Amino acid sequence: MTALEVDTARLPLLLAELRLPAIGRMWPQLTERSDREGWPAARLLAALAELEVGERGRRRIERHLAEARLPPGKTLDSFEFGAVPMISKARLMALAAGDTWLEKGTNLLLFGPPGCGKTHCGAAIGHGLVENSYRVLFARTTDLVQKLQLARQALQLEAAIGKLDKFDLLILDDLSYVHKDHAETSVLFELISARYERRSMLITANQPFGDWNKVFPDPAMTIAAVDRLVHHSIIFEMNVESYRRRTAVQRSPASPTPSHSRNADSPARTKSRATTSSDNQKPLATDDHPRQ
Ligand code: ADP
Ligand code: MG
Known about the structure:
Elements lengths: L10 H7 L3 H17 L3 H28 L20 H8 L2 H5 L3 E5 L6 H14 L4 E5 H13 L3 H7 L5 E5 L12 H10 L4 E6 L13 H13 E6 L5 H9 L24 E4 L13
Parallel strand pairs: 1-4, 1-5, 2-3, 3-4
Antiparallel strand pairs: 5-6
Helix pairs in contact: 2-3, 3-6, 4-6, 7-8, 9-10
The structure holds adenosine-5'-diphosphate and magnesium ion.
């Protein structure tokens, strides 16, 4: 080996050039420790490399968390499983780990009345997935439909849908708020078709399929969209009382039960259906609560 000119004074510069900021920050400390404890040189090198790789992974996850636009604070840790007995913590943890469902392009459909925790649950799964190195995008369905419509007007729909391919999971929150009268929503159908059997979607909706004729331009398109969504799907029916309302009642135990919580058609009085996992799942009848 030829003699190597080494000038340690240049080290900060060299590390910056190589884009190794963690080593750049930590080398004085680690080399000092290595000298003091008499580490073999290879051990020092390995420690520095581990440091950089670890920080790179953390930075990537931070970037992916920022791009996912998940609502803050809605994680599995802050989710109270007792409130939704039809969903087990183990099940959600398994979904948040990613595993095979994302590889197969399986969809996750969450139905239930307003306030039952669909958004929280969906966001928590998304959050867990990002931490497990998957890429996720959370969007209000109406916002995404609007963006795709603009893309279509600019003759860029295919490219816009293609860009969403980088996400292992696309969370479409509140699909049933999309209204075909407000906008031409076949872009939503295009998106569903493009991801079919390739890329997963997590959809939340107050109303199961029976009401989706309001969402898609015509009944044939509704059937075709539902067909594709449910073909490989896991469906959670979260027919429980609004978490907001329940906690509001719990916070004021001195006050009498508010009249709205005694509503005859309160979601709490409806039958809760067990979590279903399905392939070739038949569309479910509408049995939910259209009140917003
Ligand atoms: P939905 O999307 O079904 O309308 P959200 O997920 O927005 O309901 O829930 C309403 C509020 O109640 C949110 O602040 C959410 O964090 C909270 N919440 C709902 N369910 C739970 C739960 N099981 N544990 C903890 N917080 C919950
Ligand atoms: Mg919601």
